[in-house]
């Protein structure tokens, strides 16, 4: 510890303690305040991200010898609430605002407010349209490539088709009869995943037959309600359940269990949340696609801090003002690697 009292400048540089306002010996520790507006705190993946953001902030505090205060607000799916929360952060002179948009098309007004206050604005998970993001230099987006997740999800089904077609095509008509559970309308991850997963099947020469599709807003309960209706209507005709996220895949499984369905259809999700991974491990789901909540949270906090201090974000590998982390395909072969020890 003693070493840290009067460290030579070179030591500080070596340890990376300077930067992001790093406190030099004798200086009061520098504090940054970041407001985080979540579209809906109850969302499983978003609450995971929020936890990882806290962890990332602690990690960065140590590394940079600063204090980071993250203040979360929950817009509860209301864009009006979110607008108020963001305005409040700006009025209270927060150093940056991180925004998980309720409505992707509502970014422009928020960016203009941030620009007027000269406060960096970092969007994550729900992607503003490109035109909005180019309104000002101190805005950026941290997320992932939605098409990639749809393609990887599709590849899970393609592999099964190639290795064990009778498990997917149970009625042997040469087509996959499927139902699709979609996230909220207008979200890039609903629209693009839905399109990409089916395109992946079609490109692999697999014929599909859409029995039903419905919006369940990423929610387990809504998905289970939709699925219960489809089970009544289509019964064992349903060969595959394709869900835009794990929570909705699990909702479908809830309905199948309630209905007492003996041979489960093939179920695939996206996210790799702890519950989703557990369903892959116990074979209720064929697979999922890992959406790196931890990596995205860490990147978002680091980019935010760098923008506050006017530091270069080069080491964070941004592509212009975008940063997208890769998705990873999860099957029972690699699921254990992603399940935490707890
Ligand atoms: C997606 C995620 C969903 C949901 C949504 C919220 O990336 O896969 O589970 O959290 O974001 O915007
Ligand atoms: Ca079939």
Explain how this protein is built:
- With 342 residues, the chain is an alpha/beta fold.
- Helices cover 44% and strands 19% of the residues.
- The protein contains 13 helices and 12 strands.
- The strands form 3 sheets. Strands 2-1-3-4-5-11 form a 6-stranded parallel beta sheet, sandwiched between helices.
- Strand 4, helix 5 (130-133) and strand 5 (139-144) form a beta-alpha-beta unit.
- The radius of gyration is 22 Å and the shape is elongated.
- The two termini are 32 Å apart.
- Residues 1-23 have low confidence and may be disordered.
- Calcium ion (CA) is lined by residues 169, 171, 173, 175-177, 239.
List cofactors, ions and other ligands. beta-D-galactopyranose, calcium ion
Helical amount among residues, as a percent range? Answer: 40-55%
Helix segment tally: 13
Instruction: Give the total of beta strands.
Output: 12
Assign the structural class, choosing from mainly alpha, mainly beta, alpha/beta, alpha+beta, or little secondary structure.
alpha/beta
Strand order of the largest sheet: 2-1-3-4-5-11
Q: How much of the residues is beta strand, in percent?
A: 15-25%
Task: Give the averaged pLDDT, no decimals.
Answer: 92
End-to-end C-alpha gap: 32 Å
Low-confidence stretches: 1-23
Shape: elongated
Topology as H/E string? Answer: HEHEHEHEHEHHEHEHEHEHEHEEH
* Main sheet overview: 6 strands, parallel
Radius of gyration: 22 Å
């Amino acid at each position: 510890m003693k070493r840290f009292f009067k460290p030579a400048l070179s030591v500080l540089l070596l340890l990376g303690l300077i930067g992001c306002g790093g406190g030099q010996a004798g200086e009061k520790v520098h504090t940054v305040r970041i407001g985080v507006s979540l579209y809906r705190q109850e969302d499983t993946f978003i609450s995971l991200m929020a936890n990882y953001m806290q962890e990332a902030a602690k990690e960065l505090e140590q590394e940079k010898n600063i204090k980071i205060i993250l203040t979360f607000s929950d817009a509860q799916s209301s864009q009006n609430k979110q607008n108020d929360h963001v305005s409040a952060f700006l009025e209270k002179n927060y150093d940056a605002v991180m925004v998980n948009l309720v409505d992707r098309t509502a970014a422009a007004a928020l960016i203009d407010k941030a620009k007027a206050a000269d406060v960096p604005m970092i969007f994550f998970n729900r992607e503003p349209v490109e035109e909005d993001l180019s309104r000002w230099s101190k805005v950026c987006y941290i997320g992932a490539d939605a098409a990639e997740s749809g393609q990887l999800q599709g590849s899970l089904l393609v592999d099964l088709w190639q290795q064990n077609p009778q498990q997917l095509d149970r009625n042997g008509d040469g087509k996959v009869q499927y139902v699709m559970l979609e996230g909220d309308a207008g979200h890039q991850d609903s629209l693009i995943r839905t399109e990409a997963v089916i395109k992946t099947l079609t490109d692999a020469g697999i014929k599909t037959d859409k029995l039903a599709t419905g919006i369940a807003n990423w929610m387990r309960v809504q998905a289970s309600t939709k699925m219960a209706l489809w089970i009544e209507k289509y019964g064992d005709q349903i060969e595959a359940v394709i869900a835009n996220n794990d929570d909705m895949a699990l909702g479908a499984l809830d309905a199948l269990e309630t209905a007492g369905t003996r041979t489960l259809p093939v179920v695939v999700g996206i996210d790799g949340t702890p519950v989703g991974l557990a369903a892959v491990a116990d074979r209720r789901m064929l697979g999922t696609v890992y959406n790196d909540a931890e990596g995205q949270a860490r990147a978002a906090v680091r980019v935010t801090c760098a923008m506050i201090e006017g530091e270069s974000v080069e080491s964070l590998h941004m592509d212009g003002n975008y940063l997208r982390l890769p998705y990873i395909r999860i099957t029972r072969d690699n699921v254990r690697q992603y399940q935490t020890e707890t």
